[in-house]
Amino acid sequence: MIQSIPPVLRSLQLPLRLKLWDGKELDLGPQPRVTLVIKDPSLITQLSEPRLDILGGAYVEGRVELEGQMSDIIKVGVGLSEALIPDDSSAAVEHELHDKATDAAAISYHYDLSNEFYALWLDPEMVYSCGYFPTGDESLEQAQLAKLRLLCRKLRLEPGDKLLDVGCGWGGLARLAAREFGAQVYGITLSAEQLKLARERVAEQGLAQQVELQLMDYRDLPQDGRFDKVVSVGMFEHVGYANLAQYCQCLFGAVKPGGLVMNHGITARHTDGRAVGYGAGDFIGKYVFPHGELPHLSTMTGVLSDAGLEVVDVESLRLHYARTLTFWSERLESQLDKAASMVPEQALRIWRLYLAGCAYGFAQGWMNLHQILAVKPLPDGGHNLPWSRTDIYA
Q1: Structural domain count, the chain
Q2: Percent of the chain at pLDDT above 90?
Q3: Is the domain of 126 the same as that of 172?
Q4: How many whole angstroms separate alpha carbon 41 and alpha carbon 123?
Q5: How many Cβ atoms from other residues are within 10 Å of residue 124's Cβ?
Q6: Is 94 within the bounds of a domain?
């Protein structure tokens, strides 16, 4: 059966061992660190064009097994793809239509998996977004608290401020904004499981008078300018190109004149928002984030501006997210037995690939993460922001 291996694979020098269904083995390079156990013979013909969605899908579906450190597995898989197939990220971009039912189903698929599973590898506050490492030496717990405080400082939260948290998740930011900055927080999410746990933690911490959380679509937000500040973290990736303008208009309508809007989220590397290449974007779209789309920074600042918001500050946290994802992946990998008791086997396979793969992708610059701060101008065109932003980092 060794003769059935595509000849092109034999020329590669990757630390990869192929183990066939009949027990035979072939090393594609010296000192293999990764073993690909092929259980389905039909997969052999696909290895001559090993797109990451094909390789990842085969693992998720149990057609192959992977042996080795997950970080090595990702590097070898990318090396295999880069060596044998052209980068398809220049393909034409087709954007999807998003309605409330589609978005609610997609959010439920991703976030309603299991609160216990997420708690296994997230920090104690259950913050499922990029951490902030001021020196690079912080623990995950320290980095997530630093990120939440950074967001609040950029929003210049003051006691009594009415803060809208769009996509509030498990409520970590809402609780900290109320507890440490004295804000009155109104948070919304489309995940019933997130909302349940978030409300429980609000009650446990005695914050029920300051924090109200609801199951709501952003398109149903009040448009009467009742909020002093608006924050959206890890949310607009689910909005879709077709609805970006409406999303930004909803944020504009929710905040009062002179109020601040913070959008924290993943952005595309290319200006046309094309998917990550070599099939990685297709894998994420099929197995991880159905209907998710990443706009480029220029697109996002454009639609915010068109909605009437003035962009006043932009910061990239790409390498911070690479480190965050590495922490998450390592934590999951160290507790696979526990994780296997919490979620279906296929889901665990998806998340192992997803976390390690995204850590690699952010480190390589396949995508970015930007915090975009905007202000809704006062009637005279001005605003009350300080002349300098040095106080944010003091």
Answers
A1: 2
A2: 76
A3: yes
A4: 41
A5: 11
A6: no
Domain boundaries, position 69: 2-84
Position 218 in a domain: yes
Query: Cα–chain-centroid distance for residue 272?
Result: 19
The reply to whether 106 and 78 lie within a common domain is no
pLDDT in tens, 230-258: 999 999 999 999 999 999 999 999 999 99
**Using CA atoms in the order 57, 61, 62, 65, what is the torsion angle rounded to 10 degrees?**
20
Q: Starting from the edge strand earliest in sequence, which strands make up the sheet with 255-268, in order?
A: 211-215, 184-189, 162-166, 227-233, 255-268, 367-375, 310-316
Give me the residue label for tokens 């789309």. 293
Q: Are residues 73 and 122 in the same domain?
A: no
**CA max distance for the chain:** 77
Tell me the per-residue pLDDT of 108-129, one tens digit each, with 9 for 90 and over. 766 778 999 999 999 999 999 9
- Kindly state whether residues 188 and 76 are assigned to the same domain: no
Q: Residue 258 to residues 105, 255, 261, 308, 376: CA-CA distances in angstroms?
A: 35, 8, 10, 12, 5
Count CB atoms within 10 A of the CB of residue 208: 12
pLDDT of residue 115: 93
Whole-number Cα distances in Å, 18 to 33, 45, 67, 309: 11, 14, 10, 54
Please indicate, yes or no, whether residues 76 and 207 belong to a single structural domain of this protein: no
Among 130, 152, 250, 358, the one annotated catalytic? 358
Q: How far apart are the first and last CA of the chain?
A: 65
Residue 89 located in a structural domain:
no
CA–CA separation, 187 vs 61, rounded Å?
A: 37
Who contacts 136 (Cβ-Cβ below 8 Å, separation ≥6)? 323
At residue 96, does pLDDT exceed 70? no
- Any idea what the CATH number is for the domain that residue 342 is in? 3.40.50.150
Buried b / exposed e along 52-72 (16+ C-beta atoms within 10 A): bbbbbbbbbeebbebebebbb
Same domain, yes or no: 61 and 110: no
What three-state secondary structure class fits 319? helix
Q: In the annotation, is 168 catalytic? A: no
Residues 239, 328, single domain; the answer is: yes
Q: Is residue 95 part of a domain?
A: no
- The answer on 177 and 56 residing in a single domain is no
